[in-house]
Structures are given as structure tokens and as C-alpha cells.
Amino acid sequence: ANTAGTDPEFVQMIRDLISERAFGLSEKTAIGCMPANHDVCPLDCCPAPVRPATSRPS
């Protein structure tokens, strides 16, 4: 099987990804009909689950 190696489209994709991160671009590239998802969760995105209360024997 072939690898991406130095294929121009692959190299451009890597450059775009580095630019998004390095320059803080708010508009991320996406392929298809759905927008790009965030890659860093906002503070309130993934709250830790609350453990159910357990009863202790007396």
C-alpha cells in the first residue's frame, strides 16, 4: 500500500492543521456537510459525573 509521504494534498493538510493551532484560527476546515468540531473542550463541556450516594452499614 502507498503512504501519504510527500503527496502535495497531504502536506497542505498538515500545513493547514499547524496554521490553525499556531495562529488560533477560529474557522476550522471541515469536509462534508457538518462543521468542524472543537478540539479543546470548553470549561463546562465535560463535567465529572456525580457518584450516587451509598448507605453505610451502622
Question: Can you summarize this structure?
Answer:
This protein has 58 residues and is mostly helical. It has one helix at residues 8-23.
Structure description:
The longest helix has 16 residues, at 8-23. By secondary structure, this protein is mainly α. The protein has a domain at 1-30. It has 1 helix and no strands. It is 28% helix and 0% strand.
List the total number of helices. 1
Measured between the Cα atoms of the first and last residue, the distance is 66 Å
Runs with pLDDT <50, length 5+? none
Helix-strand string = H
Largest sheet: none
**Care to count the β-strands?**
0
The global form is elongated
Percentage of residues assigned to helices = 25-40%
Structural class: mainly alpha
Average per-residue pLDDT, rounded, comes to: 81
**Rg (C-alpha, Å):** 21 Å
| β-strand amount | under 5%
Secondary structure elements and their pairing?
Elements (H helix, E strand, L loop, with lengths): L7 H16 L35
What key attributes describe this structure?
elongated; 58 residues; mainly alpha
